Amino acid sequence: MAEFKTWEDYQYPAPDEYTLRNKLGIRDFFELRELEYKMTAKRETQLRAGIYEVPRTFDADHVRAIHGHLFKDLYAWAGEFRVVNMRKPDNELPFVSPRNEGIERYLEEMKETIASHSWVGMDRDQFAFAAAKSFTVLNWAHPFREGNGRTSRIFMDHLAERAGFGLDRTRIDKDLWNASARDTRPRAPGAAPSFEPMVSVFKEMTTTREEASTVSVSHAIARSSILQASYPRAASAALTTPTSTQTRAAQSGPDKSVGLGRD
């Protein structure tokens, strides 16, 4: 990871500075974006069908393993935590800083949160409460330079299965999801995120195991893709046309040390 020390290190130099460095050598932003979603969808199918298994340890290694499998065909840093600061367009504060093992501490908190609950036998309300707490910490860790939404979606599905539930994201309007996720933001630097806005969202998404089992793997992926678990907006909307002045400013954010991710 020594070659990835700054935001610019993840991207090609001008005139291709909006395209992530990738194993295929693609320098066109839109070509890479389209191929990325096709390739990660294939890898997601493998995970959901059990063709490829990741150890369900519900910790940092679990998160790394999901991301590593999804993106290993494209990025050298697949499964590796970001080393740069990052925020989203509607977020005044950046996600947790990778400095001083900030990401690792957040994921350790997530692990402890998950371990503190008895998932088997939960009712819907109990699950929604515990899932909201777990997701909010993971979301604000935002551990990867790209692909956090896709990774967290699979991770939360694994957690739901542990409790005997499924998650149907088509039950939630994407604007409601985005607004609720945005409302979890810390109110000041160093403050903890607030999970409460996500409780009702997870309660609405939660399905029984029987309901979840009636959906085929391919159909489940198509449905869940309607609502990317990327905060605060879907990946397709988080980055505008690369030639626009607006995007040039957004790529580095108001502070050039804080980049803007897609998920």
Describe the structure.
The chain is mostly helical. The protein has one domain (7-260): Fic-like fold, CATH 1.10.3290. It is built from ten helices and four strands; from the N terminus they run ααβαααβααβαααβ. The chain has helices spanning 29-49, 60-71, 102-115, 124-141, 148-162, 174-182, 199-205, 209-213, 217-224, 245-252, and strands spanning 85-87, 165-167, 206-208, 258-260. The strands form two sheets. A two-stranded parallel sheet has the order 1-4. A two-stranded antiparallel sheet has the order 2-3. Helix 3 packs antiparallel against helix 4 and helix 4 (124-141) packs antiparallel against helix 5 (148-162). The longest helix is centred in the first third of the chain and has 21 residues, at 29-49. It is globular. The relative contact order is 0.14. Residues 216-241 and 243-257 have low confidence and may be disordered.
Task: Sum up the structure in keywords.
4 strands, two-stranded parallel ribbon, mainly alpha, Fic-like fold, two-stranded antiparallel sheet, 263 residues
The beta-strand count equals: 4
How much of the polypeptide forms β-strand, as a percent range?
under 5%
CATH level 1 name: Mainly Alpha
CATH architecture: Orthogonal Bundle
Instruction: Indicate the structural class.
Output: mainly alpha
Succession of helices and strands: HHEHHHEHHEHHHE
Give the tally of structural domains. Answer: 1
Q: How would you state the average pLDDT, rounded?
A: 83
Radius of gyration: 18 Å
Low-confidence stretches: 216-241, 243-257
Helix content: 40-55%
Shape: globular
The name CATH uses for the topology is Fic-like fold
Strand order of the largest sheet: 1-4
Query: Alpha-carbon distance between the termini?
Result: 20 Å
Largest sheet: 2 strands, parallel
CATH homologous superfamily name? Fido-like domain
Helix count, DSSP H or I runs of 4 or more residues? 10
